[in-house]
Design brief:
mainly alpha, cell membrane, elongated
Length: 211
C-alpha cells in the first residue's frame, strides 16, 4: 500500500498538468446533461484539491481548471438548448429521464434567472438547468453573468474545502504519504456512493410513477 501511495503522490507531483486536466474534465462533464448526474465530478475536484497544501498541486491552476471546465460545460449545454429549443428536452438522452427534466423545468419556472445560480449547488438539476434555460429561450446576456457568478462561488467552495481538508490533516501531524490516499480515496468513495444512492432513488420514484 505504501509503495502504491508513494507512486500516486510522485505521479501527481511529476504530472501535475494531467491532474489539472482531470479537474477541468471533471468540471466540464458535470455540466453535460444527464452525464453530469452520473459522474462525481465535484468529488474528484475535492479530492485533488486536498493535495494542494502538500505542494503536489497549486491553488491557482486548480481553481482555474475548475472554473474553466464548468463555464465551458454550462455554456455548451446552454447553446445546445438555444439551438434545439424545446425539442431537445424530449430527445435522447433527456427523453429517458422525464422526471429529471420536469424537475428542471419546474425549478427554472419557479426561480427564473436565479435558477441558473442556484442549480450550480443542487446536484440533481445542475446538469440539466443550463440546457433547459437555453431551450426555454433565456437570453444569453442574462444567462452568462449569473452563471459566471455561480461557477466562481462553486469552484471556490469545492477547491478551498478540499484544500482545507488537506491542510487540517497536515496540522494534525499527518504527512501526505499517510493521509493522501485515504483522504482522496475516501472523498471519491463517498461521492460515488452518494451518486449511486441518488440514481437508485430516482429510478424507484420513476418506477413508482409508471406503476
Amino acid at each position: 500500500m505504501s509503495s502504491h501511495l508513494h507512486q500516486l503522490i510522485g505521479f501527481v507531483s511529476l504530472h501535475a498538468l494531467l491532474a489539472y486536466a482531470a479537474i477541468f474534465l471533471a468540471a466540464f462533464l458535470e455540466a453535460v446533461p444527464i452525464l453530469g448526474s452520473l459522474i462525481p465530478g465535484s468529488t474528484v475536484i475535492l479530492a485533488l484539491s486536498a493535495l494542494v497544501p502538500a505542494g503536489s498541486l497549486h491553488l491557482t491552476p486548480v481553481l482555474t481548471a475548475a472554473i474553466a471546465g464548468a463555464l465551458l460545460g454550462d455554456g455548451l449545454a446552454f447553446w445546445i438548448g438555444r439551438a434545439s429549443q424545446r425539442k431537445v428536452l424530449t430527445s435522447w438522452p433527456l427523453s429517458n429521464y422525464p422526471a429529471l427534466v420536469a424537475k428542471s423545468e419546474a425549478f427554472f419556472h419557479r426561480y427564473g434567472t436565479l435558477a441558473v445560480f442556484l442549480a450550480r449547488f443542487v446536484p440533481p438539476v445542475r446538469a440539466v438547468v443550463p440546457i433547459t434555460a437555453g431551450a426555454l429561450g433565456m437570453p444569453p446576456q442574462r444567462f452568462y453573468p449569473v452563471n459566471a457568478a455561480a461557477v466562481l462561488l462553486w469552484a471556490l467552495a469545492h477547491v478551498l474545502s478540499g484544500a482545507l481538508a488537506g491542510s487540517a490533516a497536515e496540522r494534525w501531524g499527518m504527512k501526505i504519504e499517510h493521509y493522501g490516499l485515504p483522504l482522496v480515496g475516501g472523498i471519491i468513495a463517498i461521492g460515488t456512493i452518494a451518486v449511486g444512492v441518488y440514481h437508485w432513488r430516482s429510478r424507484r420514484e420513476a418506477n413508482g410513477r409508471v406503476g
